[in-house]
Amino acid sequence: MSSFSIAWLDLREGSDFAARDKTLVTQALNWLGQATDRVSPDRIIVDLGAGTGSTLRALSKLGANNIVWRLVDLDEKLLDEALRRHGKNCLIEDYQADLTIIEELPLTGAHIVSASALFDLASSTFIDALVARLDARKTAVYAALNYDGTTTWSPAHPLDEKVLTAFNQDQHRDKGFGPALGPDCTGYLQKALENNGYAVTIQPSPWQLAAKDHAMLTELINGIAAAVSEGYGLTAQALEDWKNFRIANVAEGNCTVGHWDLLALPR
Ligand SMILES: C[S@@+](CC[C@H](N)C(=O)[O-])C[C@H]1O[C@@H](n2cnc3c(N)ncnc32)[C@H](O)[C@@H]1O
To answer: Is the CB of 219 under 6 A from ligand 1?
Structure first.
């Protein structure tokens, strides 16, 4: 599994929230409000790869309430942080579990299975198995903030395109689910869900980063440079020049990173 620090998840959360397509969230919450097939009055959202609870915070801000949140993550310290932040005010069932053990995921009774910034780490095998476990008549899917392979920088640098090509290749590295779909994940997930009978809508949710996001941009630049430092034919010197140029421009320039949000509703 790749590990994600609380500091990095906190740093990106404001940009993630701004980027989320709000119409899909509204549609998801409207659908949830009208779900009639429930045995109990509880609305259950199972958030896969929940981290510190970013999906919970975003959906709560946008009107979700009276939800039983099943937060699933392999990383105990992230789940503990989610409980520390929300355990008193929200109904949380926390599950420290490996998502790849699909048959053990706590999906029973789920109204929505959600995930933010997760599916681009996942493989086609994982998505196929997960979708096969979903009850397409009863369980919606909300998958936000999946990277689409586009990153544009201003001002431009001559190495931008090569770095991006290398980074997008690296996005397919195994992150614990088998070969990752990376930028291909939204299309793959959409097709898998449609084949399983869902009505699927996707909307762009790009990060729009500028001077105010300098701390996040600096982390992003360091992360990209580290990811492409070996195996992609970029010399250490060229990459160092790119990184220094990019960091020197975080307070002046801007950057757009493409993502997509997806909502799949039972028909
Ligand atoms: C990019 S982070 C996103 C976290 C959170 N959804 C957010 O938007 O802030 C990916 C999350 O998936 C979790 N994760 C990755 N692989 C996993 C696996 N095999 N089983 C369970 N959780 C996993 C990580 O621990 C991390 O919390």
So the answer is: no
